[in-house]
Amino acid sequence: MARPGNGIVPMQVAQLPWKVLFLVLAIGGFGLVVLYSAANGNIRPWAFNQGTRFFLFLAVAIGMSRIPVRVLSQWSLPIYGALVVALLGVELLGKVAGGSQRWISLGGFQFQPSELMKPMIVLALARFYEMLPASETRKFVAIWPACVLIGVPALLVIMQPDLGTGLMITGCGVMVMFLAGVPLRLFIAGALAVAVAAPLAFNFVLHDYQRNRVLIFLDPERDPLGTGYHITQSKIAIGSGGIFGKGFLQGTQSHLDYLPEGQTDFALATMMEEWGLAGGVFLIVAFGMLIAWGIGVGMRAKTRFGRLTAAGISGTMFLYCSINMAMVIGLAPVVGVPLPLISFGGTAVMTFMLCLGILLSIDRDGRTKTRW
Amino acid sequence: MVRITEAAQTYSFSRRAVVLGVAQGAVGMVLAGRMAWLSVVENEQYKLKAESNRVNNTLIPPRRGWLLDRSGKPLASNRTDFRVDLIPDRIVDKDKLLAELTRLLNLPPEDLARIETDLKRAGGFRPVQVAENLDWDRFAAVLVRQPELPGVAPTRGYARHYPLGAGVGHLIGYVGTASAEQFKADKDPLLVTPGFKLGKDGLEKTLDHRLRGKPGAKRVEVTAHGRPVRELETRADQPGESIKLTIDSGLQEYVARRLGTNSGSAIVIDVASGDILSMVSMPSYDPNSFSDGISQLEWKMLSEDDHVPLMNKVLQGLYPPGSTVKPMNGLALMAAGVSPNERVFCSGALRVGSGVFHCHKKGGHGPLDLKNAIMQSCDIYFYEMVRRVGYDAIAPMARMLGLGQKFDMPFTTQRYGTVPDSAWKLKKYHHPWTVADSLNASIGQGYVLANPLQLAVMASRLASGKILVPRLLANGPSGAQPLPVSAEDLAVVREAMYGVINGGGTGGAARMYVPGVALAGKTGTAQVRRITMAERRTGVLKNGSLPFKMRDHALLVCFAPHDNPKYAAAIVLEHNGHTIRNLDTPLIGRDIMTYLFDRDQAMKTLAEVEPTWGGDYTTRMAAQSAAFRAAQAAPPPPAPEDTEEAASSLADQAANSTADSTKRDVAPTGSVEGD
To answer: Domain Penicillin-binding protein dimerisation spans what residues (chain B) (predicted)?
Structure first.
């Protein structure tokens, strides 16, 4: 993978994994095209802002690739701890303000700890299993601390209430546990427990609006002009696009405002109306290649932390993309998870680029000959 | 428990990472599959949905076809109409908007209430009417403020216009918006498009399918918030067919005016073809104001009027034809073998069994042959002769001349009357026919009932000697078989009818003053009350001293010129009582016929007499309505929802009461003729 410098291009630049960066640039660039169209052929208000953030955070990701994996490993638990405190802070702040709140303001920058928790839970768990002696992996001591590590932030986020993010944090954590070698029967038992608990949770834990979303997901016609409207219009946009779409800037669902949230959560529908099935498959393949590369990075990683982190972070990316896609095409309830690099919104770009930066760092570590 | 080494752990990781990767790939496949399902398999369905989202179809009401008279003059046409509608989905602040519109357009509270209900019912882009028939000033006031009033749509449309106004009310009918029931019955969205009206009565209703035309459509691309983006396509409307009638609009107006304050009807038929040249029922309603939506007050006034302006008397009024049947009787008697020269002595009364039948002339006419009996309208002659041949010998001739007959006329409601005979009575009342029945029928009373159109047909058949069929639509079927009577018999009757007017008969007042044209006819009086023996002893009450509803009907059938008939007419005036000479049948008949031969003379006569009864019908209706308005200090009760249905039911009631009262009041024991 490593390429020698040819004299004109500096060694550090030449050594970057260009195939991956090209993939990310392709997805991000496509996202900007979609946002340009969503604004009726204007770079404002979305494409320009999004482009700025995209390149800013891409630079951050490339910068992060220089961070040694050792440092990531050492700092993972303290940062995780800080995020849990921040989540608590958000919760308390929300209580004081008399409403729900998901972010705290840090000097003009809106900081959403739950979002950062998505990759951080992976790092924290990877660090935990790295510290755990291999012989303890199948013992109880390998399980309960991981459950606590996952449970505390997940519950805090669900209480915000942000069920989508909470479940995603849980999902990311469980994937790392699976990769770390926790006995399979536990996952099977867990799946059964969820199957039993889900109906109970549906009836007793979920908020009315969440319950409603699930019901409408199961039957969008229930509420054709309310919440079901989103999913109905999204399906119309995608379905009417056909194989090759209506053409760039030709989408009627998005341009005539029938599709709500066409630039954020439902950007995929905006895209597929104009680019059709071809555009959708392109995105699935592109994200798939990125995630496959991430898993490959994990396979090549030298440390247990690196392996678990890389594969886990790939899982985070996977959850991010697939939850949004499933929601937009009517396979999952409307949960408010954006499609990274396509949907407008800085937080998702930031999280996704952090994931990329971590993967780049592990990739770099895996390719260097010398051990640290 | 197996001891797990770091190497084993790495191996386990690789295996599990591959499993996870494969699972993720599988999810990816599912997602792609679902996308393909939506965009390939269900593509058509979603394309349609996207299209119906995007495109808003607005119907353009078709221009209604005109109704033309025989020379092409419009009897019903379209004029430009300024209207204001509301598009419910585009309204931002309904209350503020309605308040502003009320201020700009002076909307009455009842309109405001209707708009509120319509808005609740409509929703979406289906426009709701605010006001129509606006003058330019009020329309312009809304037009200039349109940008500040989202949801308001000022539109230029078409409204129906009837140049003759009330003169064609019952003939042409009127148009109106479709009722909720009609929309429920045939879900045509055109029915609820503002500005669209369909025929509610008369020819407008029966010819509606031909007059209606096909709506145009405007396809507009709209945003989810209803803002129109661009017009995609406009398909022009296809105007309805213009239909030519046999009516002569000049004559129609003249007749309507000449009837004056009478409650009556008049029909003129072209003897050459059966064309109906005029068909007037007065008083009438103004179809212009009916088509605009009638006010409660106007409705109340019309429905309370004892001259029943809501009933088309030509087809729905049934009257005892009285002496107008005597020429027909004459034909029938001759056909039954009675010699026209045989004389009957009229002493003024005839005893039949226990009853006494009187002639209208108290002292009697003395000896009379058939011709003189018709000219003097002698009742005794016909009592005697019909008693001899029996009414069953007369009834076929009555039917042959059109009485009791159905004519295929483009109207929804017609009443056909009765030509009685023994079989009919047995079937209907389960009683045998009596001599008294024959005698009553012989003078057009008793069970005999006819509508004015049938009387006009009778006159036209007597005039032409052919079985003429009346027609109202130009280019309708024509061609008539000759009457199966001998020319000599017909000549006797026509001569008698000439004598009625020009030979010292009962209708001398109808003599025309057009050189070379003489009118032939037969007058009639139909009694609507029973005259008791006591009253007969003290002297029969004069009509002028009776209340309106108790007065006799006045009738006239006639044709001209007597020797080469061109036109035939029938006039029936309800409860006229022969009280005012200028408003009685002979002079009205004379003037209507004069119009056909010497228009200027007829107009001159009209100009002289019309002021005596308060001017033409438009003037009088305006005055009546103003007086009524003034009299109604208290707020009027709510008008019925659907004027059309109420109107027809009211007309039915009125028609029934006319028929019933005649039947009830004229007992078959005695009768009088007042000619």
So the answer is: 60-232
Q: Are residues B297 and B425 in the same domain?
A: yes
Q: Let me know whether B174 and B271 are in one domain.
A: no
Put simply, the answer to whether A257 touches B45 (Cβ < 8 Å) is no
Q: Which of A121, A138, A152, A142 is nearest to A183 (CA)?
A: A138
For residue B235, the cross-strand partners are: B217
Is the confidence at residue B339, as pLDDT, over 70? yes
Model pLDDT, residue A371: 46
Q: Which CATH number do you get for residue B195?
A: 3.90.1310.10
Share of chain B above pLDDT 70, in %: 91
Smallest Cα distance from B143 to chain A, Å: 27
Distance from CA of B630 to the nearest CA of A (A): 53
A-B interface: how many C-beta pairs under 8 angstroms?
Answer: 147
Same domain flag for B318 and B299 = yes
Same domain as B357, residue B393 = yes
Give the count of alpha carbons within 13 A of B252, CB side only.
30
- CB contact under 8 Å between A277 and B39, yes or no, is yes
pLDDT greater than 90 at residue A275 = yes
Q: What is the distance between the alpha carbons of residues B186 and B188, in angstroms, rounded to a whole number?
A: 5
Q: Is B232 on the interface with A (CB under 8 A)?
A: no
Where residue B310 sits, what CATH number does that domain have? 3.40.710.10
Which residues share a beta bridge with A111?
A104
* Residues B532 and B601 placed together within one structural domain of the fold: yes
The predicted pLDDT at position A99 comes to 56
Instruction: Note whether B286 and B432 are same-domain residues.
Output: yes
Cβ–Cβ contact A186 with B under 8 A = no
The string of DSSP letters for B47-114 reads HHHHHHHHEEEEEEPPPPPPEE-TTS-EEEEEEEEEEEEE-GGG-S-HHHHHHHHHHHHT--HHHHHH
B654, pLDDT greater than 90: no
**Domain-located, residue B262:** yes
Report yes or no: A141 at the B interface, CB cutoff 8 Å.
no
Q: What is the pLDDT of residue B523?
A: 94
> Residue B32: inside a domain, yes or no?
no
Residues 22 through 51 of chain B touching chain A, CB cutoff 8 Å: 24-25, 27-28, 30-32, 34-36, 38-40, 42-43, 45-47, 49-51
Residues sharing a CB contact under 8 Å with residue B562, sequence separation 6 or more, in sequence order: B494, B497, B498, B502, B518, B519, B520
Number of domains comprising chain B: 2
Give the residue numbers spanning the domain of B91. Answer: 56-244
**Which residues make Cβ contacts (< 8 Å) with residue B650, sequence separation at least 6?**
B303, B308, B310, B311
In this prediction the ipTM stands at: 0.92
Whether the CB of B607 is below 8 Å from some CB of chain A: the reply is no
Whole-angstrom distance, CA of residue B464 vs CA of residue B492: 14
Is B212 a member of any domain?
yes
Put simply, the answer to whether B32 touches A175 (Cβ < 8 Å) is no
- Residue B12 domain-assigned (yes or no): no
Measured CA angle at B219 (ends B214, B222), to 5 deg? 150
Identify which of A137, A240, A299 has the shortest CB distance to residue B17. A299
Six token digits for residue B499: 């004598």
> Any CB–CB contact under 8 A between A291 and chain B?
yes
- pLDDT value, residue B131: 84
How high is the pLDDT of residue B597? 95
A319: three-class secondary structure by DSSP? helix
Q: Which of B176, B210, B244 is the last residue of a domain?
A: B244
Last residue of a domain, one of B217, B244, B271: B244
pLDDT band per the 50, 70, 90 thresholds, residue A98: low
Q: Are residues B215 and B260 in the same domain?
A: no
**Is B174 in the same domain as B257?**
no
Chain A residues inside the 8 Å CB shell of B51: 240
Token pair, residue B173, equals 């009918």
Q: 3-state class of B608 per DSSP? A: helix
